[in-house]
DNA sequence: CAAATAGGGATATCTATTATCCGTAATAAC
DNA sequence: GTTATTACGGATAATAGATATCCCTATTTG
């Protein structure tokens, strides 16, 4: 059970977009080149972000993406769920229904204890992701990334931002 | 990103095995029939439990599986990890290494902030699973399952336990 | 010895992920 | 207006992983 690589891509892209000046847009092409991933496939991840309303887009030359809100309004969970979906990671196949001792017409009263525990764990995962904002990530990155690299990356992006 | 159905199967099988009297064993065949799942494939899940040391096995007629310890010593995490593996759900493809601005020979100092957050969320999921013991599940099931069904299932199992 | 079992290897099938390609509509620059 | 560039969506192919089956072996019970 492994998250799609698009999740990592989307998170990194949002981190880049967070540094974009007001009103500017960055294209799929630039984001793909910066991260060294296939443009067409990254495009699907960005479209997921767009459909979830996390980013705004414009068409045409100098078009591309920018965050829909401030980095403080965007959580890891928003981004992860936009790409990975909101479905729970444990699906109940209701195998108890095959129990040979089960009385005819016995109707389960909702999900059993097994499923509930698994879903609680799922929620714990989501709670953690919900508690970290994109702005928190930027703060950490700014501290950890060498100032020179941070600056040159920023300039690289600005050169290509429409 | 969805957990294997074997996870559900393994959890249910452990719940059944927890009710087994000391020294008795229950076969793959019986467990598969009880849950209505393919015997050969369920066998793989049970082998995973065996390899993880969670259950003991014996061969021959009247052979099968029993818990290696008490239900209180076994957590959800033990069972889930035995079947699903201990690998983290977020894998870092190190796409920052493709950054065109990255200085030659620049060596990353461990995983970046993105990966660390995702791994913390993964840990939160595992912490939750670690906090629930098999004995807790049995307690809940005993409360929720109709006494009659509980009893007949128990008898069904005992008839087939070696 | 005969029957039943766990275990493991090989293999097939199905599904989801990963990736590419192409056509369309919209937009900006010229 | 024309052209270049872009996001978007549909179709499709390639790959990997999950699901499932089959068969052989060693071991144990009776
Ligand atoms: S026992 Fe729980 S997890 Fe298993 S099939 Fe029933 S509801 Fe689903
Ligand atoms: S930035 Fe983090 S998640 Fe992304 S490639 Fe680097 S270490 Fe991995």
Classified in CATH, the superfamily of the domain at 5-86 and 134-160 in chain A is Winged helix-like DNA-binding domain superfamily/Winged helix DNA-binding domain
Strand order of the largest sheet of chain A: 1-2
Q: Which two chains touch over the largest interface?
A: A-B, 62 and 61 residues
Q: In one word, what is the shape of chain A?
A: elongated
The bound ligands are: iron/sulfur cluster
Mean pLDDT of chain A: 94
Largest sheet of chain A: 2 strands, antiparallel
The beta-strand count of chain A equals 2
- What proportion of the residues of chain A is helical, as a percent range? 40-55%
First and last CA, distance of chain A: 38 Å
CATH topology of the domain at 5-86 and 134-160 in chain A: Arc Repressor Mutant, subunit A
User: What amount of the residues of chain A lies in strands?
Assistant: under 5%
The multimeric state of the shown protein is: homodimer
Q: Which regions of chain A are unreliable across 5 or more consecutive residues at pLDDT < 50?
A: none
H-E order of chain A: HHHEEHHHH
